[in-house]
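Page 37, continued from 36.
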């Protein structure tokens, strides 16, 4: 659930900027900002941003991965498990873009 929340927030932030070059920085900054309150460690967080369809009526895609060390799960105790979630946010059709 945490990876979904981070992905949605990051995609939304990326879709609100004015130019394609600002999408990835806005999305990754937002992902880092919301991961902390979820108790996620930033070195284990991966954020992949796709701004290739950033235009009026287009979309921003963000995939978030998080590697959870299994020693935090009492029964298993070793290795990692990767959580992954992708979110897509539409870019408003009536926005002015640079």
């Amino acid at each position: 659930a945490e990876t979904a929340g981070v992905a949605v927030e990051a995609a939304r932030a990326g879709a609100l900027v004015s130019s394609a070059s600002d999408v990835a920085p806005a999305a990754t900054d937002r992902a880092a900002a919301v991961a902390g309150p979820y108790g996620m460690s930033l070195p284990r967080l991966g954020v992949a941003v796709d701004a290739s369809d950033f235009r009026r009526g287009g979309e921003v895609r963000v995939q978030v991965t998080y590697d959870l060390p299994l020693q935090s799960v009492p029964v298993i105790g070793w290795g990692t498990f990767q959580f992954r979630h992708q979110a897509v946010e539409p870019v408003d059709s009536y926005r002015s873009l640079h």
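The beta strands are 45-50, 59-69, 80-90. Flag for discussion at group meeting. The chain has a mean pLDDT of 90.
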